[in-house]
Amino acid sequence: MLLKLLKKNYFIATYLKMWPFVKPIWFVSLISVLIGIPIGALDATIALFLKPYTDLVIVSNNAQAPWYLPFLIVGFTIVQGLLIYASAYLSAYAGGRLTNSVREALYDKLIQLDSAYYDKQNSGVILVRFSGDAGTASAGLLGNAKNLVTRVCSTLALLCVLIYTSWKLALIAVVILGITVAPLTMVRRLLKKIVERTIVISQQLNVNYNETYAGNKTIRAYNLQENQRQSFIKHVEEGFQLGLKSVRRTAWISPFMHFSVSVGVSLTIAYGSWLIVHNEMTAGDFVAFLAALLMMYTPIKSLGSTITHMQGSFLAIERIFEIFAIEPAIKEKEDCKELVEFKDKICFNNVDFEYKENIPVLRKLNLTIEKNQAIALVGNSGGGKSTIISLLPRFYDVVGGSISIDGTDIRDFSIKSLRDQISIVFQDNFLFNGTIRENILFGRKDSTEEELAYAVKSAYLEDFIAELPDGLETEIGERGTLLSGGQKQRVAIARAFLRNAPILILDEATSALDNKSEAIVQQAIENLMENKTVIIIAHRLSTIKNADKIAFIQEGEMIEFGTHEELMQIPDGFYKNLYQLQFKTQEEAVSDTASEIDPDAVLTGEAKEKVLA
Residue 595 — pLDDT band, cuts 50, 70, 90? Predict the structure, then answer.
């Protein structure tokens, strides 16, 4: 029952959500917060000491007043200062640990989310919600809790001094206190929508920065500097306006609190003077009361900013737990099997798939791939070829039908064991910031030097690496920007060699390369394809006509299937028409190139390469 009541309180419920992260550091966190109690309570000692000092020294002019009072005040202040230092250090330690724990959990969530999530989000969302919110939530959680405890304990301790010195004046102070803090209950409602929109703007700004970095060549090539600048300025200006809106909605709270405090002090002075005149309190009582009142109102005036920061932390926590609540579309069964070895065949059985509801991409697709067969998927762009190869490693799950390996639905296997049996070479392979060696070893981290050397040789990287001063230890930059397209592809092929998975997917692996690079990469790919079951997507049909089988995919359906020779025998066949059109285009390109060159000239150097190409 108590737990249910606590969960209904917004502030307490928010802290309870964070308990799994706080638990490993609960003792340090608790001490950092509890130290706020003596820090706040010690504020009352100065006010208490003023009573005997005023009555004995200032009013009675008694030279025998306790000489140690000033030293006690200094001593208590030193103790308070040491406690403040200890609290700050412990809060920084606990807050840092908490931030790291939340970021690690968010990153774990990020890498578990499936491709469909990334399709819908931009880089700004990832940076802000998975990194920025963790810092805002965690750093503010303990720090604000400590500040709140300190201010509350200081207020309670000073309130006790007020009641002790004069309950009549204390009554006025409490009423004014209630009026002063009342607007703080509105802070969350006033700020929530502004904070949410500010987060969106922060995400857009991150996208602006990321696009400027990643697309710098395109921006310069198309003279898009002003276009990007205007987009950036638009978001900056909107952020500025939101900041002003936030100030308009909440800045009045601080002057209102100052006004309330001044009213309370004025009433206290007026009524206190009357009590002194009528001998209902001493001057020492009044001075102690007034000092306690001023010391109590000071943290109250700053309580507004503390509550505002807490609301920022709580809203960040809400966004964090929205992320934790996301359920990945790709899940493992509790009793899933391990795919230890691929033995027989892969079957696509009446497969249906759609990225968006009611917009089919694949329709009743049936395809069987025998072990050690090379199957090529061809067809017009947007037909569903890339979708087919994305379904096999379960980047997405089928909507209808099934995909099986050796008769077992791939959804019955553990995701790791399924993907361990598959190597993929993409058209634009992602390389990580680091060295060539590190990027190749991502294929299999425990590879030996001999295996690494074999992969390098098979991918035709030996000569290139031999020319580098640092060889395999050469840094390649973020996304491999220091390498050419062909070099990046060969590094990716070497990575696939190390993985040595029995199933190989080649997704337009040579389409973005020039003829010379394509020839080298194609040789590396042929090495890679040996003794493997291969699924190839290629627009250049000349690269796949030796495949065991070719499937022509159009609008999500397989409309032709067979060898190159068989498909070329189909009258007015889709594959035949596409192949002849492509071949004719290549012939025309060669003819046009040859006509540009003087037939009497000696074909050397670039001219010879141009004709041969």
Answer: very low
Task: Give dist(CA 505, CA 601) in Å, integer.
Answer: 45
Residue recorded with tokens 């399924």: 418
State residue 510 phi and psi, 5-degree precision: -125, 5
| Pairing of the two strands 400-405 and 359-370 | unpaired
Find all residues with CB under 8 Å of 94, minimum gap 6, and list them.
Answer: 25, 28, 29, 32, 142
Distances (CA, A) of 321 to 105, 192, 204, 314, 444: 11, 16, 22, 11, 35
Q: What share of the chain is helix, strand, coil (3-state, %, to 5)?
A: 65, 10, 25
pLDDT of 460 above 60: yes
How far out from the chain centre does Cα 504 lie? 31
Rounded Cα distance between 601 and 599, Å, is 5
> CB 495: neighbour CB atoms within 10 A?
22
Paired tokens of 585: 């285009």
Contact between 142 and 336 (Cβ < 8 Å): no
pLDDT digits (tens, 9 = 90+) for 254-284: 777 778 877 877 888 888 788 877 787 777 7
Is 0.85 surpassed by the pTM of this model?
no
Q: How buried is residue 606: exposed, middle or buried, by Cβ count under 10 Å (0-12/13-18/19+)?
A: exposed
* DSSP bridge pairs for 352: 400
One-character DSSP codes across 222-238: TT-HHHHHHHHHHHHHH
Under DSSP, is residue 418 helix (H, G, I), strand (E, B) or coil? helix
CB contact at 8 A, 484 and 371: no
Give the whole-angstrom CA distance, residue 148 versus residue 159: 16
The rounded distance, in Å, linking the Cα atoms of 565 and 311 is 70
Burial class (CB in 10 A: 0-12, 13-18, 19+), 422: buried
Cα angle value 440/442/446 (rounded, 5°): 100
Element (H, E) at 594: helix 574-595
Class of residue 524 by CB neighbours under 10 A (exposed 0-12, middle 13-18, buried 19+)? buried
The whole-angstrom separation of Cα 142 and Cα 551 is 60
Per DSSP bridges, beta strands 400-405 and 345-356 are antiparallel
Q: What is the pLDDT of residue 511?
A: 63
